[in-house]
Amino acid sequence: MTPSRRSSRRLGRFAPSPTGPLHFGSLVAAVGSFADARAGGGAWLVRMEDLDRTRELPGAADAILRTLEAFGLHWDGAVLYQRTRTDAYAAALARLGALGFTYSCGCSRREIALGGRTGPEGPIYPGTCRGGLPPGRPPRSIRLRVGDARIGFADQVQGPQFQDLAAAVGDFVLRRADGIHAYQLAVVVDDAEQGVTDVVRGADLLLSTPRQILLQRRLGLPQPTYAHLPLAVDAAGRKLSKSHAALPVDARDPLPALLRAWRFLGQPKPPERPGDVAGFWMWALANWNRARVPTCANRPGADVIRP
């Protein structure tokens, strides 16, 4: 596997999962990543994270793309679909295996939940199969050995971050029991292949970043800069994608939601209401300031998505 040559030009991306229509929380991520890339004179890509076809809603990918266009979020190049990239993920997994960084695991999720400590994102794998599969136990998944990895990075919004991977997550899955390559591996391979320099996304992925940095280092891939945007949550504090409040944004009348997303990201209010989406972006890209984005991880968003 040969990494793409890193460009001096800023290159951002938006990577939705086609599990439903675009809601306000996803719009915030799209607006933030688009503005950050374009205001810096860079390009902006769209990638569909559609590896898990069982979760995909038929027609959702096309609907998301139409919504992005209606909001003036025009991407560069062709849309990349992860379902077409399994050979690349398999090659990266094979390379990690050849380097001795992976092993087969026969544990079920229930066994891990019963036998592991609880970390920030759920049960921590206790290392049951790290020394080899127990007798009579067939392999289910493939895991990465994290060893004593301790990863620190400077998030461009949330500030300095640090994670002891063994204590926080343990050895994590790279290929699931159903044969699907895990998100952590796929996103690292795709970001490198596409030459992404700046990852601007929701803070729900902040804790995943150290795992991705570890994979980048072990595969010899470049590390992008990271900026994690505050999450829009409902009145109960739930992420909008997991809430009944996650109503689709209205592509027929995009300007109101676009302005709300802009203000949600801490950006200045236009001196006059833009006449249309094109007018908004002409003003917005000249006034985007990453330093104004709130550093808090979660912000109430139910008020901005009510019809």
For the biggest sheet, the summary is: 3 strands, parallel
Structural class: alpha/beta
C-alpha termini separation: 48 Å
The general outline is elongated
Please mark out the parts with pLDDT under 50 across 5 or more consecutive residues, or reply none.
1-5, 301-307
Order of helix and strand elements from N to C terminus? EHEHEHEHEEEEEHEHEHEEHHE
- Arithmetic mean of pLDDT: 90
Number of helices: 9
Task: Please provide a written account of the structure.
The chain contains 9 helices and 14 strands. The protein is an alpha/beta fold and 307 residues long. The strands form 6 sheets. Strands 1-2-3 form a 3-stranded parallel beta sheet, with helices on one face. A hairpin with a 3-residue loop joins β8 and β9 (159-164). Mean pLDDT is 90; it is low at 1-5 and 301-307.
